[in-house]
Design a protein that fits this description.
Blueprint lengths: L2 H28 L3 H12 L11 H21 L3 H4 L3 H26 L4 H10 L5 H8 L6 H13 L1 H12 L8 H31 L8 H19 L4 H14 L5 H26 L9 H24 L6 H9 L5 H7 L10 H19 L3 H8 L13 E5 L4 E7 L11 H4 L6 E7 L2 E3 L12 E7 L3 H14 L30 H14 L9 H9 L4
Antiparallel strand pairs: 1-2, 2-5, 3-4, 3-5
Helix pairs in contact: 1-2, 2-13, 3-12, 3-13, 3-16, 5-6, 5-8, 5-14, 6-9, 7-8, 9-10, 10-11, 10-12, 11-12, 11-13, 14-15, 14-17, 15-18, 16-17
Length: 551
């Protein structure tokens, strides 16, 4: 390739990338997953548009699996452990038994209503049996939704691919008729368990290395974190375990660890996930031949209708009922089982085999994903409001950034006071930080301020603190406590811990508003206590402050 040809290629690729970035805003305003626009870009650039011919299904499959791993890793990195922990059991049940039930029901509908053999019906059911992590993450994070419900759907989409991959591989193999169901079930269990163990082991070792390393550049931390997560992906594949489970668990562990420059890492991972989505969906759009799609429309409507109206609700009912999940949440989960890149990538597996119905399966799945994404995704915000499963709390936590200062055994913490935070109006002396912790500078309206004891915080202030490493956790908890409950956080019982989640089957209660008596009492408590530190408070004062009026 000459330099002139290289310039043309770079020009075309960057122009396509800029168009894809601009398409994100359009898809956000329309409430649609970006996958539809990216698939459309791939079709336009392909043989039906600009004439670029691409038919390498095996290359698409390999590249697609790697890009999917990056997308799932970003989902794990941005998921809070305290949110996902209560929903691990229903999520894993949906990812295993739920997928099996969806495959069975979809295959039965396909075999009964379409003129296909049993093997093709099972293949169609297996390909569309798992939900898509990229579609679920991109859609559900755009509108307020109960954290437990969102966590259930995200955890399911991040862990339900192994069973679908095993079933598709088994069906397209030559020995699928002699396959033993017990052996297949054992393979699924092995892949899930060993994949999770590998991901956890790699992530814990990586966390220890990152926390003890003072790298010379901030930009190296995100690169190292993503490399650790992808190492878990490859390591699980080497031992024939689930690479997707490993990468999700590794991302989940590292995303909840107190790593240096955590916010920079998450921003880098998010950008990398967007780039992966763009490349993956454009590549899949290039692979399709538009002239064959009209013939696949009716079969796609039949398969998708059976999946959406029968298979998905039935699997959700069976898997969620033992955990007493309310019917409103079950209804939303049934509709929110989005399909996207995963089914299309899985549909490329039969294309590399001599299976006669492989091309038909790919076309049906492609049309199914496009049509039912157009139907399901835009209705989700309205459905969440109608079913009253939206998140009424809507309180944003402070995001604390850290960097190691190896020479003085300290950390540099950075955070901004968000809108609605009760840090607004709190003076420096009222923060009551541990000894050795210093607020070195406040950036307000673009101007640096060196604070003294009487300097008060305001919304959108950016703070830089130098904190001894041994007191870092204590400082972070204190800042979170004051952010949530104000200067009287300790006396009101707020310690900066993870918020307790409501019991299974119950919606979170909205926070109680203080009445006038409460406000008068708190004002009196502030005057009574004055500027004494937490260590100087007597048990009597603590007891008086905690009792409150009318008790």
């Amino acid at each position: 390739m000459s330099v002139a040809e290289l310039n043309v290629v770079v020009l075309a690729v960057t122009a396509l990338l800029l168009i894809a970035v601009a398409a994100v805003r359009l898809s956000t305003r329309a409430g649609l997953p970006t996958l539809l626009l990216y698939l459309g870009l791939g079709v336009v650039v392909g043989e039906a548009g600009f004439g670029l011919e691409f038919d390498d299904a095996q290359l698409t499959q390999v590249v697609g699996l790697v890009l999917l791993a990056i997308i799932i890793a970003e989902g794990g990195l941005t998921t809070r452990w305290e949110v996902i922990r209560p929903v691990l059991a229903p999520s894993l049940l949906l990812a295993t038994l739920g997928v099996a039930l969806s495959v069975a029901v979809t295959a039965a509908v396909t075999y009964a209503l379409l003129d296909v053999d049993l093997r093709t019906a099972l293949l169609l059911g297996a390909v569309v049996g798992s939900t898509d992590a990229a579609a679920v993450f991109s859609v559900l994070r755009r509108f307020p939704l109960q954290r437990r419900l969102r966590a259930t759907l995200e955890a399911e989409s991040g862990s339900n691919d192994p069973l679908a991959i095993i079933l598709v591989t088994l069906i397209v193999s030559d020995g699928w008729e002699q396959a033993d169901p017990l052996v297949a079930a054992a393979q699924v269990l092995y892949q899930l368990v060993v994949g999770a163990v590998v991901g956890l082991a790699v992530a814990r070792v990586g966390e220890r290395v990152l926390r003890r390393s003072a790298l010379p550049s901030v930009g190296l931390y995100p690169i190292a974190t993503v490399a650790i997560v992808m190492f878990a992906f490859a390591a699980a594949g080497v031992v024939a375990a689930s690479s997707f489970m490993a990468v999700y668990v590794a991302g989940l562990w590292l995303g909840n660890a107190r790593l240096p420059h955590r916010n920079a890492t998450l921003g880098f991972a998010e950008g990398l996930a967007w780039l992966s989505q763009m490349g993956l969906f454009v590549l899949l759009g290039l692979l399709v031949s538009p002239e064959r799609l009209p013939a696949a429309l009716l079969p796609a409507l039949i398969v998708g209708g059976g999946l959406l109206l029968l298979a998905r609700p039935f699997s959700v009912l069976v898997c969620a009922a033992p955990f007493l999940v309310p019917w409103r949440e079950q209804a939303f989960m049934s509709w929110a089982g989005l399909r996207g890149a995963v089914p299309i990538v899985l549909a490329t597996i039969p294309l590399s085999t001599p299976m006669p119905a492989a091309q038909q399966v790919f076309d049906i799945v492609f049309v199914l994903v496009v049509v039912f994404t157009l139907v399901q995704a835009p209705a989700l915000p309205t459905l969440a409001r109608r079913l009253r499963v939206g998140d009424e709390e809507g309180a944003a936590e402070v995001a604390i950034e850290s960097a190691p200062l190896a020479s003085i055994d300290a950390d540099l913490l950075q955070f901004a006071v968000p809108r609605g935070s009760r840090l607004h109006g709190v003076a420096m002396w009222e923060l009551r930080l541990p000894p050795g912790a210093v607020v070195s500078v406040i950036v307000r309206d673009g101007q640096p301020i060196v604070p003294d004891a009487r300097t008060t915080l305001r919304t959108y202030d950016q703070l830089l603190l130098i904190v001894p490493s041994r007191a870092r956790r204590q400082v972070e908890r204190r800042l979170l406590a004051v952010h949530r409950a104000g200067r009287l956080a300790s006396w009101l019982g707020e310690r900066g811990d993870a918020r307790p989640r409501p019991p299974e089957g119950r919606a979170p209660r909205p926070p109680r508003r203080r009445d006038r008596a409460d406000r008068r009492f708190l004002t009196a408590a502030r005057r009574h206590v004055g500027r004494r530190s937490d260590d100087e408070r007597t048990p009597e004062v603590q007891r008086d402050v905690r009792v409150g009026p009318g008790r």
